[in-house]
Amino acid sequence: AQSVTQLGSHVSVSEGALVLLRCNYSSSVPPYLFWYVQYPNQGLQLLLKYTTGATLVKGINGFEAEFKKSETSFHLTKPSAHMSDAAEYFCAVSVPGSGGSNYKLTFGKGTLLTVNP
Amino acid sequence: DTEVTQTPKHLVMGMTNKKSLKCEQHMGHRAMYWYKQKAKKPPELMFVYSYEKLSINESVPSRFSPECPNSSLLNLHLHALQPEDSALYLCASSHGKMGQPISFGQGTRLTVV
User: Fold this and answer.
1) Of A49, A63, B59, B100, which sits with the fewest C-beta atoms within 10 Å of its C-beta?
2) What SS3 class is residue A61?
3) Greatest pairwise CA separation for chain A in angstroms
């Protein structure tokens, strides 16, 4: 069975500092991995995804993530934090659904990012 | 702007009420989902519809009843809910294939009193 572990339920950085949010996965098959962001009282917005190919994936808002199979990791980074990056971030792995015609996401517990001025 | 539209944005209902949450997408997606999210928790899958047929029911209580009238619409009918059912209910859609991202709506904030 697939699972996702996000290390650190809360990460606090200063504006302009590097953002690093950690995600490790467990999967018996090649994983499809996603990062989503959720602002207060809103839905989830896709930041980036890894399916196959290039292991360094670039997403929206200056975020990127690197798939490292040997470390079973998919950490999310941004070189310079903005105040507007403050939100909840979820790492997710796709899991086959029944019948093979659809799938569902298994989410990590989430990491709350706060950005200090 | 999200391409999955949910109505209403907020809903307060009594434990004896019947209400419905509505969701619409026009991206041609063939899979649609209902998730429930409690505060400070990740979304939990409730139901998946694939090609308008219910394909996954995550052992959700019968007081929640999903309906997929067509490929663009998804409803969640609510009846005799409990206060612990108060949560953010998220609708989502996707092409339904592994590796394709799921697009989420803005959610309906449900409060059961």
Assistant:
1) B59
2) helix
3) 50
The strand pairing partners of A77, in sequence order, are: A20, A64
From A106's Cα to the closest Cα of chain B, the distance in A is: 8
Following DSSP, what letter does each residue of B48-105 receive, concatenated?
A: EEETTEEEEE-S--TTEEEEEEETTEEEEEEES--GGG-EEEEEEEE-SSTTSPPEE-
For the beta sheet containing A73-78, the strands, ordered from the edge strand earlier in sequence to the opposite edge, are A3-7, A19-26, A73-78, A64-68, A56-58
Determine the Cα–Cα distance for residues A1 and A4; give it in Å rounded to an integer: 10
Range B31-45 average pLDDT: 95
Question: How does pLDDT run across B87-109, given as a tens digit for each residue?
Answer: 999 999 998 777 788 999 999 99
Residue matched to tokens 């019948």: A99
A59–chain B Cβ distance below 8 A for any pair: no
pLDDT tier, B1 (very low <50, low <70, confident <90, very high otherwise)? very low
Name the minimum distance, in Å, from the CA of A18 to any CA of chain B.
24
The angle at the Cα of B75, spanning B73 to B77, to the nearest 5 degrees, equals 165
